[in-house]
Amino acid sequence: ENEVVVFVEPAKTFQTFIGVGGALTDAAAETFYKLPESKRNEFITAYFNKEKGLGYTLARTNIHSCDFSSDMYTYVTDSTDKELRTFDISHDRKYRIPFIKEAIQAAGGNLMLYGSPWSPPAFMKTNGNMKFGGKLKPEFYRTWALYYTKFIKAYEKEGIPVWGISIQNEPMATQIWESCLYTAEEERDFLKNYLG
Protein backbone atom coordinates (compact mmCIF):
# COMPACT_ATOMS: atom_id res chain seq x y z
CA GLU A 1 0.00 0.00 0.00
CA ASN A 2 1.61 3.31 1.10
CA GLU A 3 4.52 1.89 3.09
CA VAL A 4 7.90 3.53 2.71
CA VAL A 5 10.69 1.18 1.66
CA VAL A 6 14.34 2.09 2.15
CA PHE A 7 17.15 0.16 0.49
CA VAL A 8 20.62 0.46 2.01
CA GLU A 9 23.63 -0.22 -0.18
CA PRO A 10 26.64 -0.56 2.21
CA ALA A 11 29.15 -0.47 -0.66
CA LYS A 12 28.06 3.05 -1.64
CA THR A 13 29.37 5.73 0.74
CA PHE A 14 29.15 9.51 0.88
CA GLN A 15 30.43 11.76 3.67
CA THR A 16 32.35 10.61 6.74
CA PHE A 17 30.36 10.32 9.97
CA ILE A 18 32.52 11.48 12.91
CA GLY A 19 30.39 10.25 15.77
CA VAL A 20 27.41 10.42 18.08
CA GLY A 21 27.30 12.08 21.45
CA GLY A 22 25.55 14.19 24.02
CA ALA A 23 25.64 17.44 25.96
CA LEU A 24 27.79 17.61 29.10
CA THR A 25 26.11 20.61 30.74
CA ASP A 26 26.03 21.94 34.30
CA ALA A 27 22.59 20.38 34.83
CA ALA A 28 23.80 16.97 33.63
CA ALA A 29 26.88 17.17 35.85
CA GLU A 30 25.01 18.32 38.97
CA THR A 31 22.37 15.62 38.51
CA PHE A 32 25.08 13.00 37.88
CA TYR A 33 26.72 13.75 41.24
CA LYS A 34 23.40 13.40 43.08
CA LEU A 35 23.33 9.73 42.05
CA PRO A 36 24.86 7.02 44.25
CA GLU A 37 28.32 5.99 43.03
CA SER A 38 27.09 2.64 41.66
CA LYS A 39 24.46 4.41 39.53
CA ARG A 40 27.02 6.99 38.35
CA ASN A 41 29.26 4.17 37.14
CA GLU A 42 26.32 2.45 35.46
CA PHE A 43 25.27 5.70 33.77
CA ILE A 44 28.70 6.77 32.50
CA THR A 45 29.41 3.24 31.22
CA ALA A 46 26.05 3.05 29.45
CA TYR A 47 26.75 6.20 27.46
CA PHE A 48 30.49 6.30 26.86
CA ASN A 49 31.94 2.78 27.10
CA LYS A 50 32.50 1.26 23.63
CA GLU A 51 32.16 -2.37 24.77
CA LYS A 52 29.41 -2.17 27.41
CA GLY A 53 27.49 0.92 26.30
CA LEU A 54 26.61 3.22 23.42
CA GLY A 55 30.21 4.32 22.92
CA TYR A 56 29.56 8.05 22.52
CA THR A 57 32.55 9.65 20.76
CA LEU A 58 31.39 13.28 20.64
CA ALA A 59 30.31 15.70 23.38
CA ARG A 60 29.40 19.35 23.68
CA THR A 61 29.73 21.53 26.74
CA ASN A 62 28.64 25.08 27.46
CA ILE A 63 31.09 27.99 27.68
CA HIS A 64 29.96 29.50 31.03
CA SER A 65 26.25 29.30 31.86
CA CYS A 66 23.35 28.29 29.64
CA ASP A 67 19.72 27.28 30.09
CA PHE A 68 20.99 23.95 31.45
CA SER A 69 22.80 25.62 34.38
CA SER A 70 21.41 26.12 37.87
CA ASP A 71 22.77 29.67 38.02
CA MET A 72 23.86 32.38 35.61
CA TYR A 73 27.62 32.98 35.61
CA THR A 74 30.54 34.01 33.43
CA TYR A 75 34.31 33.54 33.64
CA VAL A 76 34.93 37.32 33.74
CA THR A 77 32.77 39.87 35.55
CA ASP A 78 34.96 43.01 35.30
CA SER A 79 33.73 45.06 32.33
CA THR A 80 37.05 46.92 32.17
CA ASP A 81 39.09 43.70 31.82
CA LYS A 82 39.34 43.62 28.02
CA GLU A 83 42.49 41.45 28.19
CA LEU A 84 40.64 38.91 30.40
CA ARG A 85 43.33 38.79 33.08
CA THR A 86 40.65 37.83 35.64
CA PHE A 87 39.34 34.90 33.53
CA ASP A 88 38.44 32.09 35.96
CA ILE A 89 36.74 28.72 35.37
CA SER A 90 36.63 27.76 39.07
CA HIS A 91 32.82 27.46 38.88
CA ASP A 92 33.21 24.49 36.51
CA ARG A 93 35.61 22.63 38.80
CA LYS A 94 32.86 21.67 41.25
CA TYR A 95 30.75 19.48 38.94
CA ARG A 96 31.25 19.90 35.21
CA ILE A 97 35.01 19.37 34.89
CA PRO A 98 35.02 16.17 37.01
CA PHE A 99 31.97 14.94 35.04
CA ILE A 100 33.68 15.55 31.69
CA LYS A 101 36.81 13.77 32.95
CA GLU A 102 34.73 10.74 33.93
CA ALA A 103 33.11 10.73 30.49
CA ILE A 104 36.52 10.88 28.80
CA GLN A 105 37.81 8.03 30.96
CA ALA A 106 34.73 5.90 30.25
CA ALA A 107 35.20 6.59 26.51
CA GLY A 108 38.64 5.01 26.70
CA GLY A 109 40.53 8.27 27.13
CA ASN A 110 39.42 9.88 23.89
CA LEU A 111 36.30 12.05 23.48
CA MET A 112 35.83 14.77 20.87
CA LEU A 113 34.66 17.68 23.02
CA TYR A 114 33.52 21.03 21.71
CA GLY A 115 32.33 24.13 23.50
CA SER A 116 29.46 26.48 22.68
CA PRO A 117 28.48 29.77 24.29
CA TRP A 118 24.85 30.75 24.80
CA SER A 119 25.69 34.42 25.43
CA PRO A 120 28.65 36.72 25.99
CA PRO A 121 28.78 38.39 29.42
CA ALA A 122 26.06 41.05 29.82
CA PHE A 123 28.50 43.97 29.65
CA MET A 124 29.59 42.87 26.15
CA LYS A 125 26.03 43.02 24.75
CA THR A 126 23.79 45.70 23.27
CA ASN A 127 20.93 44.88 25.65
CA GLY A 128 23.15 44.69 28.79
CA ASN A 129 21.67 41.27 29.60
CA MET A 130 22.79 37.68 29.01
CA LYS A 131 19.14 36.81 28.36
CA PHE A 132 16.62 38.00 25.75
CA GLY A 133 18.85 38.01 22.66
CA GLY A 134 20.77 41.22 22.14
CA LYS A 135 23.95 41.38 20.10
CA LEU A 136 27.67 41.44 20.75
CA LYS A 137 28.89 45.06 20.86
CA PRO A 138 31.50 45.72 18.15
CA GLU A 139 33.97 47.09 20.73
CA PHE A 140 33.99 43.65 22.40
CA TYR A 141 34.58 41.51 19.29
CA ARG A 142 38.28 41.09 20.05
CA THR A 143 37.71 40.43 23.77
CA TRP A 144 34.98 37.89 23.07
CA ALA A 145 37.23 36.08 20.56
CA LEU A 146 39.96 35.97 23.23
CA TYR A 147 37.38 34.51 25.66
CA TYR A 148 37.04 31.35 23.51
CA THR A 149 40.80 30.81 23.45
CA LYS A 150 41.02 31.37 27.22
CA PHE A 151 38.30 28.73 27.67
CA ILE A 152 40.15 26.22 25.49
CA LYS A 153 43.48 26.82 27.27
CA ALA A 154 41.88 26.65 30.73
CA TYR A 155 40.16 23.34 29.97
CA GLU A 156 43.30 21.90 28.42
CA LYS A 157 45.21 22.91 31.58
CA GLU A 158 42.63 20.82 33.51
CA GLY A 159 43.52 17.84 31.29
CA ILE A 160 40.47 18.19 29.03
CA PRO A 161 41.35 18.56 25.33
CA VAL A 162 38.93 20.75 23.37
CA TRP A 163 38.45 19.48 19.81
CA GLY A 164 36.38 22.45 18.62
CA ILE A 165 34.03 25.32 19.32
CA SER A 166 30.95 26.85 17.75
CA ILE A 167 30.47 30.60 17.64
CA GLN A 168 26.98 30.66 19.10
CA ASN A 169 24.20 28.34 20.26
CA GLU A 170 20.97 29.12 18.35
CA PRO A 171 22.17 32.41 16.79
CA MET A 172 18.73 33.40 15.49
CA ALA A 173 16.75 32.79 18.70
CA THR A 174 15.81 35.42 21.26
CA GLN A 175 15.31 33.37 24.44
CA ILE A 176 14.21 34.07 28.00
CA TRP A 177 17.53 32.46 28.97
CA GLU A 178 21.10 33.10 27.79
CA SER A 179 21.03 33.99 24.09
CA CYS A 180 22.74 36.23 21.56
CA LEU A 181 21.71 37.10 18.02
CA TYR A 182 23.94 36.89 14.96
CA THR A 183 23.16 37.02 11.27
CA ALA A 184 25.13 34.59 9.12
CA GLU A 185 27.20 37.55 7.88
CA GLU A 186 27.96 38.69 11.44
CA GLU A 187 29.12 35.20 12.41
CA ARG A 188 31.25 35.05 9.26
CA ASP A 189 32.87 38.42 9.97
CA PHE A 190 33.44 37.65 13.66
CA LEU A 191 35.16 34.40 12.68
CA LYS A 192 37.13 35.94 9.81
CA ASN A 193 38.27 39.14 11.52
CA TYR A 194 38.60 38.10 15.19
CA LEU A 195 38.09 34.50 16.29
CA GLY A 196 40.00 32.91 13.41
Name its key features.
196 residues; alpha/beta; four-stranded parallel beta sheet; 5 helices
Describe the structure.
- The chain is α/β, with parallel strands linked by helices and 196 residues long.
- It is 30% helix and 9% strand.
- The protein has five helices and four strands.
- It has helices at residues 26-32, 37-48, 96-106, 141-157, 184-195; strands at 21-23, 58-63, 112-117, 164-165.
- A four-stranded parallel sheet has the order 1-2-3-4.
- Strand 3, helix 4 (141-157) and strand 4 (164-165) form a beta-alpha-beta unit.
- Helix 1 (26-32) packs across helix 3 (96-106) and helix 2 packs across helix 3 (96-106).
- The longest helix is centred in the C-terminal third of the chain and has 17 residues, at 141-157.
Write the layout of secondary structure elements.
Elements (H helix, E strand, L loop, with lengths): L20 E3 L2 H7 L4 H12 L9 E6 L32 H11 L5 E6 L23 H17 L6 E2 L18 H12 L1
Parallel strand pairs: 1-2, 2-3, 3-4
Helix pairs in contact: 1-3, 2-3, 4-5
